[in-house]
Protein: DNA processing protein DprA
Organism: Kocuria flava
Amino acid sequence: MRPDPSVPETVRLARAGLSRLLEPGDLPGTLLPAVLGPVAALEIAAGRRPVGAAEHAAYTRAAAEAGLPPRQASLGRALERWAGRAAALEPAADLARVRACGGWFAVPEDPDWPAALADLGAAAPLGLWGRGDRALLGFPASRAVSVVGARDCSHYGRRVALDLAGALAARGWTVVSGGAYGIDEAAHGAALATGTARPPTVSVMAGGVDRFYPRGNAQLLARVAESGLLLSEIAPGGTPGRFRFLQRNRLIAALSSGTVVVEARWRSGALSTAHHADALSRPVGAVPGGVQTGTSAGCHRLVREGTAVLVTDVDEVLELLQPFGAAPAPEPEAPAADVDGLHEPDRRLLDALPLRARSRPERLARVAGLSAREVLGGLRRLEERGLAEGTGEGWRRR
Amino acid sequence: MRPDPSVPETVRLARAGLSRLLEPGDLPGTLLPAVLGPVAALEIAAGRRPVGAAEHAAYTRAAAEAGLPPRQASLGRALERWAGRAAALEPAADLARVRACGGWFAVPEDPDWPAALADLGAAAPLGLWGRGDRALLGFPASRAVSVVGARDCSHYGRRVALDLAGALAARGWTVVSGGAYGIDEAAHGAALATGTARPPTVSVMAGGVDRFYPRGNAQLLARVAESGLLLSEIAPGGTPGRFRFLQRNRLIAALSSGTVVVEARWRSGALSTAHHADALSRPVGAVPGGVQTGTSAGCHRLVREGTAVLVTDVDEVLELLQPFGAAPAPEPEAPAADVDGLHEPDRRLLDALPLRARSRPERLARVAGLSAREVLGGLRRLEERGLAEGTGEGWRRR
């Protein structure tokens, strides 16, 4: 889908400007376009004209409704904050820059704007810079799952991420992740390899999409941009910083119907994605691991704190994502025990049967503590199941 | 504590006889002594005299109160069941046999009978055959923890069992387990090595205490009998069978204030101990592990089904056992991140600071999207924390 031609270029330019002016999560900066429209919002935010009295009243009302504390809502303080970047705004150049690398800039006014982002409310992004087939942007969050975890993952974590993301992708789920080393990398890679959804995988970056970051993943991210989507709310050239990583995580959480943390230490950025998903009432799964190395301590913490459900395989993840839409996870295949379905007296009789020697019913009754009737009936039932065999000399286990 | 001399020898003999006559969990057989006293109960159960009309009425009332279905409650059927073993009863010989190996037979009438067993109600054992210092029998369940798990445990499971049981024992907890290979073995061994409680460890057997079973654990069990306690409700000479293992697990659960499953496959006897503990409203913990080998699938199942709380170390186990009596588990020690305690604008400022080159405040304001006031205040705060350093040429990270 191409951007809607009915969206005026002024709107796209204004939002591109706002996207460079404002840091993610700057709520006054998000409220302003929501209340006054993006064009007026940029004029005011960039200090090109003063805010009108009616505009200020409308903004103040919206800020109060959004629950912003007065200090944080103050437009005066916000304008001071924005002034430093206002002079250097060149939204047309930014748009040209993203187009130069085959990308685009989507705005909430576009018909293919991901509907799931609305759940972020005032924290929704001002726009999305993207690379990849624009027709894929409207992918449904209801068939997308976020798979995230530690950068410095263990061999075990990588293995689980490959298996889990690969299995989800093979079943038609879009795998959303953050493009980082470790678990993210494995999740994207597995989805590219086995994915059947369009897009098979989506990588949400913490910096501009014009650069592949981290550089070691450049090849992987180029493949994501080719077959899937690379998205960011940061304008081209923007560098990723810790704060932007944390904000970015809310987009990963919002663009999917649930988040699985594959491996994470006690302190891990992946936990922030889990908490964002939880705050959005999207289910969170966490994969357990060994307790002695600490590499899964963050996953265990999420389970202990009740944020996440413990998940061990793709079926359990699907049960989490579609609690009403899918069949419950099947029990793992385990060889049925030979005592399944036997009632207690028969189990005791089976316990009492010798393996090699043979035992007469009278003796079995004494050993098992059963009546003669129970023993005779039980031997017949065990024989039918092929668990006992009797001759004139007595009975034994088979 | 020696057995109370005021308990008549006839009572001990009668209970010893009942203990050989009846299989664990045979509810009519447990109700009979509860209603009529052990001496009359043995006379009737062994078929030495018929049950009186008043006795039968009292028994029937008790069976109804205990919720036994009529078929299961039928005394006639029970007598048929018991007849096979009745002829061979030699309780005096059984008592001599246990004494010959330095053991004893405790009965509920003894003042040192473990009070916690009362929680089993009608399923309480008829008596306990034991080895070890009889003075230790009254150990408090409130300072005992059951540590159980798979026989065919992994290297990981054994390691965790050693660590966990060792740490619990070192903090004065009595470690209760089942004496089996694998996790049980590790739990007993660690408790013997580091335990400070008396007894440091208690092993509840599924067969008679006169024999060490399994034979490969004979040396370990001999040490348990020497420093701790070996207990069983099965009369001397009794062989362990699958049914008896499952029944035995209710005693492990009842004799402690909580149960920890260290490692268990999807189907594992250790899960039955967990379910018994849960049924007794005693907390259950389960240690997670890798998801790819299936060796911890039973633990994960307990957590997913809500039976167990996920636990990863001794502090979390203690928090489970003493939810009100102990301090909550401390957060694992992790190096404090340098951004801890910084508010958002300062974190963004820190992200914006170059590592090698130097940056002037005006530029930092633009890069971080902050006002001049925020940048100057922030640089001062970062400098105080040793995170930034400034000269006439500008600022950088330290």
About this structure: Chain A has a mean pLDDT of 92.
